[in-house]
Amino acid sequence: MKMLSRILIAASALAMTTAMPALAKTFVYCSEASPEGFDPAPYTAGGTFDASAHPIYNRLVEFKKGTTEVEPALAESWEVSADGLEYTFKLRQGVKWHSNEKFTPSRDFNADDVIFSYQRQASADHPWNQYIAGITYEYYNSMEMPSLIKEIVKVDDYTVKFVLTRPEAPFLANIAMPFASIVSAEYASVLEAAGTKEDLNNAPIGTGPFKFVAYQKDAVIRYAKNPDYWGPAPKIDDLVFAITPDAAVRLQKLKAGECQLMPYPAPADLAAIKEDPNLKVDEQAGLNVGYLAYNTTQAPFDNPKVRKALNMAINKQAIIDAVFQGAGQVAKNPIPPTMWSYNDAIVDDVYDPVAAKAALEAEGVKDLSMKIWAMPVQRPYMPNAKRAAELMQEDFAKVGVKVEIVSYEWGEYLDKSMEPGRDGAVILGWTGDNGDPDNFMGVLLSCASAQPGGANRAFWCNEEFSALLAKAKQTADVAERTKLYEEAQVIFKDQAPWATLDHSTQYVPMAKNVTGFVMSPLGDFTFDTVDLAE
Amino acid sequence: MIRFFLSKLLYLVPTFLGITLIAFSFVRILPGDPVLLMAGERGISPERHAELSAQLGFDRPLWIQYFDFLGRLFHGDLGNSLVTKKPVMAEFLTLFPATVELGLVAILIATLIGVPVGVLAAIKRGSWFDQVSMTAALVGFSMPIFWWGLLLIIFFSGILGWTPVSGRISLMYFFPDVTGFMLIDSLISGQKGAFTSAISHLILPSVVLATIPLAVIARQTRSAMLEVMGEDYVRTARAKGMSPARVIGVHALRNAMIPVITTIGLQIGVLMAGAILTETIFSWPGIGKWMIDSISRRDYPVVQSGLLLIAGLVMVVNLLVDLTYGLINPRIRHK
Hints:
The complex is a heterodimer.
Chain A: H1 2-19, E1 26-29, H2 46-51, H3 53-56, E2 61-63, E3 70-72, E4 75-80, E5 86-91, H4 111-122, H5 138-142, H6 145-148, E6 149-156, E7 159-164, H7 171-174, H8 185-194, H9 199-202, E8 210-216, E9 220-225, E10 238-242, H10 247-255, H11 270-275, E11 279-285, E12 288-293, H12 304-313, H13 316-323, E13 328-330, H14 353-362, E14 369-373, H15 385-398, E15 402-406, H16 410-416, E16 425-431, H17 438-445, H18 463-473, H19 478-495, E17 498-511, E18 514-515, E19 531-532
Parallel strand pairs in A: 1-10, 14-15, 14-16
Antiparallel strand pairs in A: 2-3, 4-5, 5-7, 6-7, 8-9, 9-10, 11-17, 12-16, 12-17, 13-17, 18-19
Helix pairs in contact in A: 12-14, 13-15, 17-18, 18-19
Chain B: H1 2-29, H2 34-39, H3 46-56, H4 62-74, H5 88-123, H6 128-141, H7 145-159, H8 182-189, H9 194-229, H10 232-239, H11 244-281, H12 287-296, H13 300-328, H14 330-334
């Protein structure tokens, strides 16, 4: 059987090479990590989605390129009922599924595929819920889909109605996320009959701009242009991911012409990349925030004035210069400036050690000792937390506050930093999933998220702030939501549960002849619009 | 000889069981919880955490988990990766040939250069060749692999453009895995230039991986040769008027080979450690990189089974080394 499949692969590879025009345009992307699999639903890593959800699949709605705005995709249009509880999607007709050596679709995409794609995640009894033993649907769960979706009704072959349990403004943004990719119900039944269910994950069939061709584990992923794509046809014929975990090696490959585009350059290499005549660099503010979260339940950090004073003692620009080597900007709000509802009218705490010291003394704080937690790993919002902690240690020393820096193994760090009664302030951050402000403020600062299992590491529960978020979450009108979030940011700034540190900048180095690449604020890498100039 | 072989084989059983225990405990002693790592900054509710732990079987007492692991092991089931959800054995078999290919070429380079250099340095003890080669060996032995690999890439691939930067073969070649060994598969594929491309991709990583073993082998050969050349039987051989080549080649080298072969055998373990870094730098899809990824994600099944497979491999190699002693020195197998 194995031999047979190898021969089949060889034959299809041969067929591909012979079928390709003499001058097929191949685009090589030096990706940084191996995909966990090719079914987006059970996984959580961005690198997995770049290799699965974006090239191979589509969703009912998707993020418009380069923005976090939701636009029609497999759903051509939708209507929301007045009470915000029913979303009726009109599906696009004539969308073709990919084919491979084991599967030739007999029908186009339709409502059955939508229902299959959601039901398998929603119901533990669904025959496809555990098609690989031990899989879980973490994004479906963490975006609260189980409690949100009451039922999904097939109105007809091209109409699907989602009935929700409560109005939820971010719903459309949520289902534009990779976990909500639509997989083929027909392919699933073919695989089930053949007894090879796991091929849903290994040999994916989608409706996206590229067809999956082959994956050599930890080395290369190959895709071919989908000639029947319903959207604008990709300009390249073949897309190849050359998996290259080390940033310095990725850069060497890019320079040597072994690939045309790479993610995540080392900050130290940026100057040299910009000077290289054969390369260019796109840059964009990342949809992220790095922060220092005080434990607002413990004295003296339960006093907003003390927190404000400490915030004034931090020289944030120095952190941007030293830790980010300039590749970032000082943060004043809990959401990044590229996100809608960012309140630019807010004035940041001015760096002023003298005033900070006076403010601390006015609150009766003397000889304060505290801990600062520094994460052991590099994250997009914080490339070197220990260095940042050292800088803050120096800053706080100037206002008479003694700082001890502590760190733990990453998993332990995440766990212990959420323990009630935690000693010290924690450096951490967040990268947005879907561009909705609730995905920052709701997840990180609401009263609900201050509970065990949440991510509110300041344990900050401000009723007024949380009420604004709750109201905004149930409001469909974006202008009205914007106002509510702007108000919430004023309360946040006044109460200062965090010292907002930074928003990092993303850089994408590429060969000079690459055209049409659009950076995603969500950090996705998509190649359906790229081309190579002659 | 068969009895010698069987007695050696018998020793492996308790060793192997010991390794299962070490491999099992090792990953669990490390702080960090795979479920928490999966959840990341978002966090996970205590209920969901308990649910996932139960689903993965981590809520059971450790000794039950251990015997469950052993029980499955005897049925040839190494479990599934927590990250990719795929069988560990299947992943291992996919990646293993890449590591073997790299390791074999590296050990070949290390032996073919290391042994002659060591012999020559011993014969010309105190000469400039001895001084230079042994200083180079000391430098090689202390070489930080990651830095060394990157340096070679920047020089040979970046500046000179002689070798490709990373990977196993140029992306223009595309053929299915038959043996998993790129050198063989590229030949089978019949695609023009594929074999040369595979070789050119192998040069830098195998040189980097060979660096430390080469240094160790050269130094070991030199000291073993010096010791043997002071022995009575070598003096006797010389006194009998044998040609220097015969004295060195037959009498001295053969006896000096015992510690050298031990060293080469032990280098397999060193190679595995070196493979972790070398594979990461050169984007080489082998088990070294696989293990390091799995450790950082606390992918328990992969780490414990991967360790076991690697340890098993080192044991087999050492068994072969033991058997080779028997071939070289008949006194050992009669003991």
